[in-house]
Specification:
Helix content is 46%, strand content 15%. It is of the alpha/beta class.
Length: 173
């Protein structure tokens, strides 16, 4: 199974890009699914901390602090959960898209299990609604100097010129 990791700041279009890639790849006959490192984290936040699912100031704070607690206990916790799922479904899908890589180790672990393409997306015209503390949290800064396969700069509701090249690269054997 191939993996596509997508990174970028909060609100920059990671999930939008993931959904666009999924549709395009499925139109080429590929079996694709989207999974997030934070899916388990969000489940705990919802079930245990009564998070309402909104990534507003309170929601983002809950997610960042809970993620910190999980990583303090086991730096690999969320990574290992995702890797277990990838291993479980590897025969059923051609491509997994992970649109919330926040740390170098998350991308490198994917590269260790198979062909992985890393993408960073920046929405040029985006005005962050994060607090200064949230914007400077390690989940927003840990990949600032990472070297990606693709760096995309886009504007809201604009086409991504690199998308055809990315699709071609993903489809290569």
């Amino acid at each position: 199974m191939k993996c596509v990791s997508i990174s970028g700041g909060a609100g920059h279009g990671k999930d939008t890009l993931a959904n666009k890639l999924k549709c395009l790849l499925e139109s080429k006959g590929k079996r694709v699914f989207i999974i997030h490192y934070a899916d388990y984290l969000k489940m705990v936040a919802t079930q245990v901390y009564n998070w309402n699912g909104l990534k507003d100031e309170i929601g983002r704070d809950i997610l960042q602090k809970l993620g910190d607690k999980m990583r303090e206990q086991d730096e690999m916790f969320l990574i290992n959960e995702l890797l277990r799922i990838l291993n479980l479904v590897k025969e059923d899908f051609d491509i997994a898209i992970i649109p919330d890589a926040r740390f170098p180790r998350e991308i490198e672990c994917l590269k260790n299990i198979g062909r992985t393409i890393s993408i960073h997306i920046t929405r040029v015209d985006y005005k962050s609604n994060l607090t200064n503390e949230q914007n400077n949290h390690k989940t927003e800064r840990a990949l600032d100097d990472y070297s990606y396969d693709y760096n995309i700069s886009t504007y809201t509701d604009k086409e991504i010129p690199e998308i055809d090249l990315i699709i071609k690269n993903i489809l290569q054997v």
